[in-house]
Amino acid sequence: MTEDFFKRDPLFLAPLAGFSDPPLRGVVKKFGCDATVSEMISANALVFEGEKTLKMLEKNAAETPFFVQIAGGDAEIIKKAVLLINKFEGIDGIDLNCGCPVPKVVKQ
Ligand SMILES: Cc1cc2nc3c(=O)[nH]c(=O)nc-3n(C[C@H](O)[C@H](O)[C@H](O)COP(=O)(O)O)c2cc1C
C-alpha cells in the first residue's frame, strides 16, 4: 500500500459479520473494490489461536490492501491480538470495531 493510497478516495468493502468472507471479498475485488476488510474477529478468540479463528485471517491473493477487523473489551487482550496479527504477511491494517450495536458485541 503506497503512502498516497487514501488520497485517491479508495472504495472499501465494509466489514460485514457473517458475510465478508474470502469468497464475497474475491467477487467484490473483481468489481473494482480497492480495499477489503475481514469479518469482525473477536480479540479473545484470536489470542486462543484456534484453527477456525486463524482461518479468518486468510485472504485472496488479489486482496491488497487487506484489513482485519477486531473487537474486544480488554486492552491487554486487544494488544495481544494486534501483536499476533502483525506476524501475518499480507495484512495491511487493523480496524478496531468500537461501535457495533449488536447485543453480543456490546456485552463485551
Ligand atoms: C449484516 C451486517 C453485518 C455487519 N457487520 C459489521 C461488522 O462486523 N463490523 C462493522 O464495523 N460493521 C458492520 N456492519 C456495518 C457495515 O459495515 C456498514 O458500516 C453499515 O452497513 C453502513 O454502511 P452503508 O453506509 O454503506 O449503508 C454490518 C452491517 C450489516 C448490515
Description:
- The mean pLDDT is 93.
- This protein is an alpha/beta fold and 108 residues long.
- It has helices at 22-30, 43-48, 51-55, 75-85, 103-106, and strands spanning 36-42, 66-71, 93-96.
- The chain starts with 21 loop residues before the first helix and ends with a helix.
- The protein has a single domain (5-106), classed as TIM Barrel (Alpha-Beta Barrel).
- It is globular and about 35 Å long.
- The chain has a three-stranded parallel sheet with strand order 1-2-3.
- 32% of the residues lie in helices and 16% in strands.
- Bound molecules: flavin mononucleotide.
- Flavin mononucleotide binds next to loops.
- Flavin mononucleotide binds at residues 14-17, 19, 40, 69, 97, 100.
The gist of it:
With 108 residues, the chain is an alpha/beta fold. The chain is built from five helices and three strands.
Number of helices: 5
Which molecules are bound in this entry?
flavin mononucleotide
CATH homologous superfamily identity: Aldolase class I
Give the terminus-to-terminus CA distance. 32 Å
